[in-house]
Amino acid sequence: MVNHRVLITGATGGVGRGIALACGAAGWEVWIAARREAEGRAVAAEVDARGGAGRFVACDVADDASVTAAFAAVSSAGAIHGVVHNATSSYSSVPHPATELHLDELGHQVAVGLRGCHLVALAAHAPLRATQGSFLVLTSEAGFEGKKLLSTYATVKAAQRGYMRVLAREWGPDGIRVNALAPLASSPAMDDALRLDPEMRERVMRRNPLGRLGDAEHDIGPVARFLLGDDSRFVTGQTIMADGGSCPIT
Amino acid sequence: MRLGFLGGDSRLVDALAAALAPDHRVDVPDVRSDPWAGPTRDALHSFRGTFAAAGRLEAVVLCTWPTASLTVPAAAIAVEEWMKHVEWPIACWSNALVAAVERCADGGSVVVVAELPAALDVAGHLAHVVVAEALTALARSLALAEGQRGVRVNVVSTEILTAPEQPMGSPPPLRSFPGRAETEVAGAVRLLLDPGACGITGTVVRADCGRAW
Q1: What domains can be seen in chain B, in order of their start residue?
Q2: Gene3D superfamilies attached here (chain B) (predicted)?
C-alpha cells in the first residue's frame, strides 16, 4: 500500500536525484519523469535501495503531449500526492556576459524551465486537488539576485518564483500547496558551472557561512520531502532557501 | 541628459512617455509570432543591432506594459496562449533591455517599468507576474555586469494594469492607488534617473502607492 506517491521531473541526476532518494528513504513511491530512460531507471533502482519504490516514466517537460502521457501513466498507478518540477535546460550552467543575450539559449531555457513548469502544473492540478497535495518548483538564489554570467538562468529562475507565487494563491482554495526550493548543492550542473567559471568557486564559498556546498540527497532532499509531505500542510507560497546561508536575502 | 524611451504601442505607454519627454522614442517590435523562428527572430536581431548601434544615451527607459493582457487563472492557460503572453514577451523585452543597456553611456542609467502586482493581487495575472519577475532578474544581472562602467539598471514596478477593484486585506496606504502613469510612475522613474540616485542599482522601486513592500 503506497502512502505517498510523488513525481519528479529531471531527476536523473543532481538535485532531482537527491530529492528522489530522500523521498525513497521515507518509503514513498517515486516516479522519475525524464527523457533519459537508462539514467532514470538507474535512479529508480536507487530509490528501491533506499526502501522506497522507484519508477520511471518518459517525459519531455517542454512537450504538452509528453507531459500529459506521463501523468496519465503515473495516475494509473494511483493517487499523486506531490509533484516536483526540477528539470532544467542543459544551457543553464553555460556562462556568458549578460549583454550577450542568445535567443536560442533563452528559448531552450524558457522551454524547459518555464514552459515545462506550466505544462507540469496543468497536468498536476487535478491529481493534486484530489489528494490536497503539494507542488514544488526548484528555483535558485539566482532568481533573487541575478547573475552576471548566468543571466538567462537567473531570468528563468526568477520567473519560476513568480509562477509559484501566483499558483499558490490560485490553488490554495483547492487545498493544493505550492512552494519553491532554492538549493545550493553539488550537482553535475553546479560542477559544470564551477569548471566553466573558475572564479565562481571562490565567490560561492566565501559568502557561504556553512562553508560547503550542500549534498543533494542529505541536505536538499529532506527539505523537499518536508515541502511535499504533510508536515508542511500549512506552508504555501514560500521560497525556502536550502543553501547554507549563501544567499544574503532573508 | 539625453533620454531614450522604448515601449510598446498603447495610450498608457504614451502617457508615461509624454510625462518623461524623451529625446528619442522607439517602438519595440510587437512580437506576434514565434520569436525563435523566421522573420520575428530576424526582426529582434535587427532591432537590437540598430538600436544599440545608434548614438549613446545617458538614460534609457524601457516600458514593458503589454498592449494586451491575459487575465485568467493559470490552470486555464493553454500552451499556445502561454507562449504568446509569457514566452514571447520575455524574448522581446529581454532583447530590448539588453539593447538599452548596450546603448547606455558609461555612468548612465537604465530604468525598466514592469507591471508586477502585489502578492495579494497576483491571482489571475500569471503572465504579468512571470514576465515582470523575469525582467527584474535580467535587470539585476545587467546591473551586476555593467556596474563597472558606472551604468545603473533598476526597475520600477507598477500595479496599474492589474489593480483589483476591491483590494483584499488592508486597503493600500495611499488613496491614489494604483497611481497614474504620468504622476506616480513617471515620478519613480525620474527618481532613479536623477544623478542623486548614483548609488542605486539592481533594485526595484514599487510605484504602487504602498500596496506591496
Answers
A1: 3-206 (3.40.50.720)
A2: NAD(P)-binding Rossmann-like Domain
